[in-house]
Write a structure and sequence with these properties.
Length: about 220
């Protein structure tokens, strides 16, 4: 639970860890800097949440982490490919006023949740040509005894699915709408040219009698 100054309603935040070694789903810095090693309670916040509450580097907000209330200091604003479509689990539509994503250094977040040396969220990349269903099945068998809720492919990841659907809609619009306009334009042009030729039936034979070719007449 987050408490943001000037906003009376409760806000839910999702805290994610990051380190300097992994580039998968790494936050892309838009403003400020990354939290430093040993920096107490320094966090990044996602861009949408920052704009909704007008939070910038140097501002603070309170968070209940593992039953303890802590004051977090914003040092940067970031974007992430994992949260292009920022929505809380169970919600239908995004609500950037009441849901935010925050990043904290791995060692500090692990200590805050008493999970030093452990993890509760995992993202993996696979080699090109890998059989993803087999990998998911093996992961589920490996992690089942630790309480895993099941692995899933990137196609089921909310942000990836949202962006993919948007691209499909844009592709459909780019094909259907111009096709309709071009078809109507071709029909109207055909009608106009046909009537023009019909009204000039007398002139066309006369011009051909003077030696003008079909190509010259069609070009005119």
């Amino acid at each position: 639970i987050l408490e943001v100054s000037g906003f009376a309603e409760p806000v839910v935040g999702r805290l994610l860890s990051f380190d300097d070694r992994s580039r998968l789903n790494a936050p892309y810095l838009r403003e400020g800097r990354l939290p430093t090693r040993g920096g107490q309670s320094e966090v990044l916040i996602n861009d949408g949440f920052s704009k909704a509450h007008r939070l910038h580097p140097g501002d603070t907000l309170s968070a209940v982490i593992n039953g303890r209330k802590r004051v977090l200091r914003v040092v940067g604003v970031a974007l992430s490919p994992e949260f292009v479509y920022q929505i809380r689990e169970g919600d239908i539509l995004p609500d950037e006023l009441r849901f935010g994503v925050l990043w904290m250094r791995e060692e500090e977040l692990a200590a805050a949740f008493d999970m030093d040396g452990a993890f509760n969220d995992l993202a993996l990349s696979v080699y090109r040509g890998a059989v993803v269903p087999d990998i998911i099945q093996r992961l589920d068998l490996l992690l089942e005894r630790y309480g895993s809720l099941g692995a899933y492919d990137r196609s089921d990841q909310p942000s990836h699915r949202f962006v993919t659907n948007e691209m499909q809609e844009l592709r459909g619009m780019a094909l259907v709408i111009p096709s309709i306009f071009l078809a109507v334009a071709a029909f109207l042009l055909n009608v106009v040219v046909s009537r023009l030729v019909t009204t000039q039936r007398e002139q066309i034979p006369a011009m051909k009698a003077f030696g003008y070719t079909n190509g010259e007449l069609a070009s005119h």
